[in-house]
Amino acid sequence: MKKLPLAIAISAAILSSNVMAELAPVEFHGYFRGGVGMSADSGQQVSYQKHDLGRLGNEDDAYGEIQLSKEIAESNGITFKVNTMLAMASNGSNDWEGTGTSCEFTPAEGTNPDAVSCEDDAQFALRQYNVEAKGVFGGDEVIFAGKRYNQRHDVHITDFYYWDISGSGAGIENLAAGPGKVTAMWVRADSSDSSGIVDTGNNGGKLNVNVFDLRYSGVDLWDGASLEVGVDYAMSNETNAHTGALEEGLMVTAELTQSLLGGFNKTALQYGTDAWGAGKVSGAGIDGSSAFRIINHGVVGFGDKVDFSHMIRYSVGSDVAAGASDDLTNLSIVIRPQYNWNDNHKTILELGTYSGTKADGTDVGGQKYTIAQAISAGSSFWARPEIRVYASYLTNSEEKSFAGLTSDDEMNFGIQAEAWF
Fold it and tell me: How many CB atoms lie within 10 A of CB 111?
């Protein structure tokens, strides 16, 4: 809660600055999703493997971001900008949502009130707070320091971020070099005690990990095609109190983007080694492990009436968990066709399936079938705000996980709004 007053104070100081008043106006950006839903058997709406099966009709949370940005100074052609972002996440179950414990019921007679536990309704976080200096070398390059979203790569329909080292750090991005641009960043990403690491002298038992990211982007290959390549190295910085295996790792990424049918198609290849790199690629990793992932996704249009988005993702990891006898595998396919009746009304389908094997040899898998009717601010796939009425049918083909572990399928019904601005 201490972060909220701090963010408000910072914003007030920015808005009252006479220097800033002479420059560009305050930029106000944001994102949110929220609504209401229920399931046929489980009471509240369930969410199941949305990164594998798709997010439409499969999100049971409320989430929002508010960003304020402002150019606060200009000197010799260099502009200085401050960015702040506050985020909130909750399950959307109550009118008053915040941190701190509170109960809106009276314990039954004979119950010890001190034994009643109430969870926080919401979590707040200062997701971004940084300073950017643009044009230091006379171009479009940006030097930054602070907490920041760092060139995140994601699949929108599954809310899956496959290349993301956001956090507290510093760097330079979009520095012109030959046919493309260079980005170099140093970001802190501490590791918890998950593989025998003991470091009582550093951050409450966590191991200090620093990620060094180097990217080269914007390389034009042929008409409408561009290439981006990058390498991320995670280096542990132990203290004298450290014992156990070091959590290090390397991840290499290559991504080809092709403009297609008024939209785009992207193919990303990623290879990771050891704890950090294999964990980022496969979802699990220890020293000595390795993993590979290929993702193809995009959004294209067929005339004015039909938009189509998809994701195909396959990943495999070797020796990703201590004592495991099998490799980890995952294959996920999600498609989202959309028919635009007019500029504001559309019908959306989202179909997803996934299958795989955990590191312990357990098989996993499931399917999702969603239909939604939406009202949006335009016919584009990306038009927002958008309000959707949806119904989803979810199945778990390997593990019984719905309705109190007694059913392997479930129906969701609900209404959701999503907006970015």
Answer: 10
Alpha carbon distance 387, 374 (integer Å): 5
Tally Cβ neighbours within 10 Å of residue 221: 12
CA distance 152 to 143: 17
The strand pair at 62-75 and 27-39 is best described as antiparallel
Q: Do the domain assignments include residue 105? A: no
| pLDDT tier for residue 245 given thresholds of 50, 70 and 90 | low
Determine contact, residues 272/285, Cβ cutoff 8 Å: yes
In a domain, 55, yes or no: yes
Kindly report, residue by residue over 45-68, the tens digit of the pLDDT: 999 999 999 999 999 999 999 999
Instruction: Give one DSSP letter per residue of 167-212, joined into a string.
Output: EEEEEEEEEEETTEEEEEEEEE--B-S-SS-EETTSGGGPBPEEEE
Domain that holds residue 323: 3-100+119-420
Residue 111 placed within a domain: no
Kindly state whether residue 318 falls inside one of the protein's structural domains: yes
User: What is the spatial distance between Cα 167 and Cα 158, in angstroms, rounded to a whole number?
Assistant: 22
Instruction: List helix spans (H) across 193-339.
Output: 274-282
Strands 242-243 and 249-260, how do they pair?
Answer: unpaired
CATH number at 193 reads 2.40.170.10
